[in-house]
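User: I've been trying to design a sequence by hand for this structure and keep getting stuck. Would you show me what you'd pick, starting by listing the structure so we're on the same page?

Assistant: Good idea, let's start from the same input. This is the structure you sent:
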């Protein structure tokens, strides 16, 4: 029969989901009880996410079974009770019928966040996923334009029905405010507006919802991390140092609120000349990859600087929906595939 210490040592070989650190050094293993042929491991997670609990239970039981196959193994995993989040607001669990909730964020505006969000959403829908896209950029909602939506969402007497385009359900504050009327909102209003886009919209069951975030680390980011349990964040950056420095700040902010970073996308990474076919690195290509290594984040992909990507955005026909086999569309499809895989493995 193994000793308690032997079991603890074996548990040091089980890593915490999404991290390289093991569950023992993470301090979540509270006790190991060996009783006859039974081993019970008591685990108290600091997370409130039942998916993490499920994964830890599975990993612990499989690993211990492998090492002690004549014993019965049970991992008893409990989640932390909801604690008031920063600012004293209780974390709410909005969007319960959405399996994965992912923020697409950046430190700076104009780096192509919305372009990436739209093309990823359409690419994921083409993979057969049920996808929602919530335009959370209160100050510059651009999703309706980029998906060529001109109609207003309908109201069924109780909730707003999201507009469906290219297989993606979308909702934007742009639908609700006059586009010529600059929105200067602060704090509580941003919070309320964003929460309404989650609670007062009939999203239905979804596999994944992407949030197109405003730039920076302001009220919308805080609201979102307090209102929903985000499953991950994707950071978009261009290769220049200034954008990159802001992207790193974005990564740090999400880490602080325990949102896993799925990775970073280098947008406008390089330019392929339509005439000579040559690859031109207009900005300092490679910077994002270096920075990713330094901060321990994955590089999810490199999207070229390409006229068709811009035109697709302006015309409301995203490049992934229109030119499936072209390199710029393939670049988005590959990122989408990586993101789905990461979500499923988390
Ligand atoms: N890879 C790209 N190639 C060419 N143009 C791009 C690319 N990514 C974004 N753009 C263009 O750059 C502008 C800003 O992109 P946008 O997605 O609105 O940025 P953000 O949401 O970060 O402010 C848009 O006109 C868009 O069409
Ligand atoms: Mg945008």
């Amino acid at each position: 029969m193994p000793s308690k210490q032997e079991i603890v040592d074996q548990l040091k070989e089980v890593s915490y989901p999404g991290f390289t650190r093991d569950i023992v050094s993470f301090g979540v293993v509270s006790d190991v009880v060996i009783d006859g042929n039974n081993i019970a491991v008591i685990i108290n997670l600091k997370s409130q996410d039942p998916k993490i609990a499920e994964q830890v239970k599975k990993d612990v039981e499989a690993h211990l079974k492998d090492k002690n196959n004549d014993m019965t193994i049970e991992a008893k995993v409990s989640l932390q009770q909801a604690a008031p989040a920063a600012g004293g607001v209780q974390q709410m669990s909005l969007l319960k019928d959405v399996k994965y909730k992912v923020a697409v964020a950046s430190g700076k505006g104009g780096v192509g966040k919305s372009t990436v969000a739209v093309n990823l959403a359409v690419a994921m829908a083409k993979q057969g996923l049920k996808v929602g896209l919530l335009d959370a950029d209160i100050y510059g909602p651009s999703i309706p334009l980029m998906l060529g939506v001109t109609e207003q969402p309908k109201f069924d007497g109780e909730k707003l029905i999201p507009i469906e385009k290219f297989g993606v359900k979308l909702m934007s504050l742009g639908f609700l405010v006059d586009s010529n009327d600059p929105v200067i909102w602060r704090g509580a209003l941003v919070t309320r507006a964003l929460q309404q886009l989650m609670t007062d919209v009939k999203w239905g069951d979804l596999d994944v919802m992407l949030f197109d975030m405003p730039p920076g680390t302001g009220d919308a980011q805080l609201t979102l991390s307090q209102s929903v349990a985000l499953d991950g964040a994707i950071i978009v950056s261009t290769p220049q140092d200034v954008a990159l420095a802001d992207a790193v700040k974005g990564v740090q902010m999400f880490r602080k609120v325990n949102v896993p970073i799925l990775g970073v996308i280098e947008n406008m990474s390089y330019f392929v000349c339509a005439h000579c076919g040559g690859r031109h690195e207009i900005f300092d290509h490679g910077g994002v990859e270096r920075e990713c290594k330094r901060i321990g984040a994955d590089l999810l992909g490199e999207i070229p600087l390409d006229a068709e990507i811009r035109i697709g955005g302006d015309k409301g026909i995203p490049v992934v929906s229109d030119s499936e086999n072209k390199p710029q569309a393939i670049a988005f499809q590959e990122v989408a595939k990586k993101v789905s895989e990461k979500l499923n493995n988390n």
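That's my pick for every position. To get oriented when you compare it with your attempt: Residues 106, 109-115, 142, 267-268, 303, 305-306, 309-310, 313 surround adenosine-5'-diphosphate (ligand 1) (CB under 6 Å). Residues 327-345 form the longest helix (19 residues).
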